[in-house]
Structures are given as structure tokens and as C-alpha cells.
Specification:
By secondary structure, the protein is α+β, with helices and mostly antiparallel strands. It has one domain. The protein contains three helices and three strands. It has helices at residues 16-22, 37-49, 101-111, and strands at residues 60-65, 83-88, 96-100. It has a three-stranded antiparallel beta sheet with strand order 1-2-3. Bound molecules: zinc ion. Zinc ion is lined by residues 71, 73-74, 76, 99-100, 103. Zinc ion (ZN) binds at residues 71, 73-74, 76, 99-100, 103.
Length: 114
């Protein structure tokens, strides 16, 4: 069970501001994860064009530690030591989209800014 609108960390506490501070930048992500921002934005555009990702702003957003699920943009695992963003949309509330922090950023830049 999840509580709508509540951010959680690994221990389930609400910790929005704390998470913001601990959120890793690109350079301190695990070495195995190589993200190319341009590539991510390209992929975001592609997935929106083919309907695999929504185009509108999310209705709900949760941030927390990854729980080993796949990212909706890059299809790679979101590791527990990474921040995972979970998004829910009005148009399709039964689907939860999960993103790495940087993937969410790329999607947002490609889709919401336009
Ligand atoms: Zn990703």
C-alpha cells in the first residue's frame, strides 16, 4: 500500500527535503550506470511519440529509493541506492511509471516544457 502524495525513503519515512539533499548527481551514480542526457532525451521523445510514455504532466509524483524495478525510459534497473521517481497520470491511473531521477528530468524536459 502506498500513501498518495507522500514521499518516502527506504525506511518508509516521509522525507522529501532530506531526499532532495541526498539525491545523487550523475557523477556519484554507480559506475555501471552510464547515462547520456542527449540520448535519454531522444529516447523520451521517441517513447512519447509512440505512446509508451505520457505527454502530460503527472498527477502524482513519489520519490524514494529504488526497489529494483525497471525504469520506464531507459529500461534499466533502478538500484536501491538510487532515487526512484514514480509517476501517476489522470489519463491512466492504473499505470505507475518509474524513472531514474535523470530519466525523469529528461522526460520532463522533452514533454512538459513543450
Ligand atoms: Zn532510467
Amino acid at each position: 500500500m502506498r500513501t498518495a502524495g507522500l514521499c518516502r525513503d527506504a525506511s518508509g519515512r516521509a522525507a522529501t527535503s532530506q531526499l532532495r539533499h541526498e539525491a545523487c548527481d550523475l557523477d556519484c551514480m554507480p559506475e555501471c550506470m552510464q547515462f547520456d542526457e542527449n540520448e535519454l532525451r531522444l529516447e523520451a521523445r521517441r517513447r512519447v511519440a509512440t505512446g509508451r510514455l505520457p505527454r502530460e504532466p503527472q498527477q502524482y509524483l513519489w520519490a524514494g529509493a529504488g526497489d529494483g524495478q525497471l525504469c520506464s525510459l531507459c529500461d534499466r534497473l533502478i538500484h536501491p541506492q538510487q532515487i526512484e521517481y514514480e509517476l501517476q497520470f489522470n489519463t491512466n491511473p492504473q499505470i505507475i511509471y518509474r524513472f531514474h531521477r535523470i530519466c525523469h528530468q529528461a522526460w520532463e524536459l522533452e514533454c512538459i516544457a513543450k
